[in-house]
Write a structure and sequence with these properties.
By secondary structure, this protein is mostly helical. The protein has three helices and no strands.
Length: 80
């Protein structure tokens, strides 16, 4: 993840300097653990967001199918 950030961000970006200072030049275990926890929390929130989108689409699909079926049933009763 660090390498990906270095490739994407400009070299003078404060985030890159922070990472270089606390991860490579003089590793600070507390900072590393804090960043690791934040990254994990962010990844979890992104994963949860996409799961919620998938669930919403699934529920919407079921609701549409039930609506179509109820309209068919109503029309069948109306034809009698």
């Amino acid at each position: 993840k660090y390498r990906a950030l270095k490739m994407v961000l400009p070299s003078d970006d404060p985030n890159v300097r922070y990472i270089e200072k606390n991860f490579s030049v003089c590793p600070n275990k507390e900072v590393i653990e804090n960043v690791r926890n934040r990254v994990t929390a962010y990844e979890d929130s992104v994963r949860h967001h996409y799961e919620m989108i998938e669930i919403a689409a699934y529920k919407d699909s079921i609701a549409n199918r039930l609506l179509r079926e109820s309209k068919e049933i109503k029309s069948n009763f109306g034809n009698r």
